[in-house]
Structures are given as C-alpha cells and as structure tokens.
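User: Could you check the structure of this?
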Amino acid sequence: MSVSDNDRQDNPSLSFGSDILLCVSTSPHARAKRRIAALVEEVENLKQHRATKQRKTTYYVSQGRVICRMVVLYTPIEDLIAENDRHCEDSEAANSTLEQHRLQHGYIELVKALPWFHGKLANLNHEETEDMLKKLKRGADSACGDDMGTLKELIASWVNIEYRPPSLIRPDDKHHRGFMNDACGKLLCPAEWHWDDPVVRAGIRDRTTAFIVSENSWPLFVYESYEVDVRNLECGLFKSKLLVIGFKAIFTSPSSANEVDGKGDGADIIENNQRAWRRSDQTKVKMCVASIKSMRKVTPRAIAYAVCQIRFALSNITSRRAVDGDFDYQFFWHNIVDFFENPPGPAARDRVQELLEWWTRKVFGRNHRPDLTPEVTTRMSVNALAAQRQHMEDAAFD
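Assistant: Sure, the predicted structure tokens are below.
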C-alpha cells in the first residue's frame, strides 16, 4: 500500500518507517479500553465454558447414580455397549451365550433407565464418550457408597430389634458383624445348612473345606420368614421382610422402610412423594430414587442390587469390594439376575412374574395405572362403546 508525499504533508499523523506498517495513531486510553473489553469477553467465554462443562459433569454424575441400582453392579458400561454393537452386527445373535444375553439385557435396561443415553452415544466422539462414561461411573460409585451407609445403620437397628442379641450391634461399626455374630451369622448362613448346629457354626467360622460359604448358596435372609424347604428351594425365595425393608430404604426412602410389616401391601410411594412436593411450596423435599426415575414396578436387577447391599451390611467387611473371602459378589449378582431373566421354561417364567408382581405390591401398592396400555384400554367399555357407535354410524350411511 502506498501514500503520496502530499498525503503525508496534509496529514502529519500518518507516519512510516522502513520496518513498520501503516497505522493511524490512537490514544493510549482508547487502546487500553479495547484491550480490557477483549479480555473481559475472553474471561466471560471461559466462565461460560467452565459453567457448561460443570453442568455436564453434574448431570452425568447424577444420572449415573441409577446404574448400579438398576442396570449392572460391577460390569463396565463399555461391555454393555460392545455387546449391543455385536448384537446388531451378528446375524446369529439369537444363539448368544448366557453371559452375552445378560450383557444385552443390561444394555436394554440402561437405555430404559437413561432414555437419552443411546442417542447421545451416537453423537459423541471417542474422547467425549470416555469422558461421559467416566462421569457416569463416578455417579454409580457415589450412589453405591451412599446406600452402603444407609443400610449399615438400618440393618444394625433391625437386627437389634428382631433378634435382641446379648451385645447390641453398633450402627457405626461393622467389625462385630458377619459370621462371628450369631444374629448376622444365622441370616448369612447358606440355606442348605442349619446355623443352630454347632458343627455348622464352627465349620463356617473356621472356614473349613466342608463349609465353604460362596455365591453358589442362597443365604437364609432372602427367604420368607427366614425358613427354607430344602425339597422346594424356590418356595419363599426373595420374599423376606428384611429384603423389602432394604429395598424400600434404597428406592423409596429409609422412612418408608419402617412401614413394612411383612403382610400388607405398600403405599403408593410415587403419589405420596408428589403430594409432599406439591404441599411443600417453597420447602425443599428430597425426591426418592423411584420418583426421580418414575419407577412404578420392581425390576429383577433392582432386587439383585438390594440383596447384595443387604448381604454387605450383614457382613463384617468395611469397604466395598467384589470378593469377600470365598464369596464373589459379582457372580452372586449374576445368579440372582439369571433366576429372574433366564427361567428354564414358561412355568418358571410365570412364577417369576408372580414374584415380581408381589414385589411391586409390597413396594408401590396396588396402583396399576402404568398397566393401562392402549392395548388394554381398547378392550374397556368406554373405547368399546366408541367403536360400536362409530360402526353404527358407518352402517347408517351404507
């Protein structure tokens, strides 16, 4: 760019040097103001980016709290995603192994619990996906830790009231639980043995080869009235009062667990929670897990989670881990889930369905509104009458 000598003479503010570009002089104050404005804008953009990132983190962590409770206990989410991809690509997916079936069912439960997950996953790159899964796992671990703390106190109080041990169990201590405690030991005892037999008690406590306690035995606390019919081990399985108490403490609030009497049906927790929310006005009311996730039915994986948490609360181990001596919690969770999701035939499937309906009544009461699907309502008199009237109307003009 060139400027004539006349221009320079007419406008002395235009100056050149051999190594500088053409410039129009401005006041230092104006330049400082513009630099400050640019820096302020940059800071605001950084704040907004940080706030957006924090909101995403908070959202993913809060959403992840449902994963251990309703989807998988120890299995990585990546395994569920990989199995769903394999299921989509494999033309012989119908011949899946039991493990593959469990993983695929887990992915379906994940999408049910987090409806946004599948679509979000398709739109993220690898780095963003890893970040999301890491935050979801953080939320899952946090929820599991919170539930462990809740049941640690609740189970201690319940055992003290029900069994009145000579030395009461401290709610804040786990060292005096497990098989060294008679009350906890009886509830943890495998169903095939009798805890009252001194030989059994000694064998379990000494961890002899004749009395190995593993995930391959159902503990007594999962049975109704804590009694077992060895000729029919399915009778009363997963129907104990302690299980219902623990489940409600996790999913519908610890206070609702106090309402369990072992005989009656549960209240409509969702409706009661919503009423409390409406009555609260400006008062903050903590929503229970069932309300947050609009959970109206008890699911097999939720039961499996509650069973594992209660067993941990009865044991004397102080930190969460997958293996406790000879007992593997992950395989134990698998055994419970497989009982519900992989019955040997239609008769067993019907019994499983009856058991799940029993659970839903115990936890959520007898409100069946979620079962009013379009297929069901079309057979009811209001819709049937509407169809008849339309048919008569059409016939009148034929």
